[in-house]
Amino acid sequence: MCTVVADGQWSKRSYKTKYDALSGVATIIGYKSRKILFVGIRNRYCIIYQRAKNKKLSLPKHTCFMNWKKGATIMEADAIAIG
Fold first, then answer.
1. What is the reported pLDDT for 14?
2. How far apart are CA 71 and CA 38, in angstroms?
């Protein structure tokens, strides 16, 4: 067991309204070692997928980084729980 510091960030400021960020990240850092122990990234948007969908084209083969389908409010909590 080690003491850690965890924090999460969104890609968009919310000012207590409009929790609709498209990306979020959470980091876990060792308290004493000050080393990064975990970084979790959640993305709700993929530009290639969105362009193909808007133009009604078939989805080209690509490396997709979209890995989140749920709401923006639980992105960072999920990433910290996984870490």
1. 62
2. 22
Q: Tokens 């498209």 belong to which residue?
A: 22
| Residue 79 and residue 40 in contact, taking contact as beta carbons nearer than 8 Å | yes
CB atoms within 10 A of CB 80: 17
Structure pTM?
Answer: 0.75
Tell me the two tokens of residue 3.
Answer: 């003491």
Give the CA angle between residues 29, 30, 33 to the nearest 5°: 125
- DSSP conformational letter for 31: T
Query: 2 CB contacts (<8 Å, ≥6 apart)?
Result: 30, 31, 32, 33
